[in-house]
Amino acid sequence: MARIFPWSSAAILGAFLLVAGCSKTFENAATEVVDQSYPLDPTARLTIRNLNGSISIQGADTAELKLHAIKKAGSSAQLRNITINVAVETGSVSIATSVVPQTKRSPLGSIGTVDYELIVPRTARIARLDLEDGKVLVEGMGGDDVRANVVDGQLTLRNCCANLHLTLANGDLDLSFERCGPRPFFAEAQITHGSARVALPQDASIRARAQTMKGKVINEFTDIVNVNGRSLQKVDLSLGSNTRSELAIHVTTGDIRLVALKSNAVTASQTASVAGSE
Question: 3-class DSSP state for residue 268?
């Protein structure tokens, strides 16, 4: 049986530096905090939905879920309208923010925010992560999947050596695969309006495809920066002699930057085929 925990309390003042300070500022703000832990299977399924604020998830060598959150609103009355609901089983956990607006026309940002910080088994599966407005940081995950969707804000993933499925309507994407090692993975990201930065080791073994419809692709892995006097809009890049991982980034309006992370020794051969805009 699932255990249901409705909380009208929230989080911890110390969150990751990336997500700190992303909440709206409220004059004479009211806050509530929560700090809870639950046993969790290492391959458990995690879903989390937040409206306004932040979500920070850290993968670790652990067999439990540690939850910290901070709820903030302009008044105690507004604070009571924000609820954190948690359902926990051994093999799954679901976390969701719900808000009862004081008036039908009250914008979410004027009502309050919730900032989450989670520590989970690094082999857990993030089956669904949704954030309407704010920042997301996911770090050190190596389970089967990481699925994340942000409407407005910033989406950052560091050393998540899993199959990534990412969507971002408006904002910036930052991906880094500095310590993924030999395990193969597939990553795909779709951005409507915004920019993407993808950092890969120079000695990685991966095929990276990047395309923007209205913008440019800046590729640090090749000296070619222009085709027929125009900025690149498509890059197909293969690193290493035996590519096992794949990365695909598509941006409708905005730029993509492929960053070459320095390594002590670059032993893998690099080949790149670059296609310009039509």
Answer: coil
Give ∠ CA 92-5-70 in degrees, rounded to 5: 95
Segment (H or E) for 184: none
Q: What are the backbone angles phi and psi of residue 104, rounded to the nearest 5°?
A: -65, -25
Tokens 């073994």 belong to residue: 205
Average pLDDT per run of 10 along the chain, which is 278 residues long? Answer: 41 37 54 93 96 97 96 91 91 93 54 94 96 97 94 96 96 91 85 96 87 92 50 83 88 95 49 40
The answer to whether the beta carbons of residues 140 and 158 sit under 8 Å apart is yes
> What residues pair up with 251 in beta bridges, in sequence order?
191, 212
Q: What is the pLDDT of residue 169?
A: 98
Q: Which two tokens stand for residue 148?
A: 């994340």
Length of the chain: 278
pLDDT at residue 28, as a whole number: 57
How high is the pLDDT of residue 136? 98
Residue 121 sits at the vertex; the CA angle it makes with 116 and 122, to the nearest 5 degrees, is: 95
Query: Dihedral of CA 20/30/65/52: which sign?
Result: negative
| Residue whose entry in the numeric block shows the structure tokens 């090692």 | 181
Alpha-carbon dihedral angle through residues 135, 99, 48, 15, given to the nearest 10 degrees:
40
The structure's pTM equals 0.80
3-state SS class at 274: strand
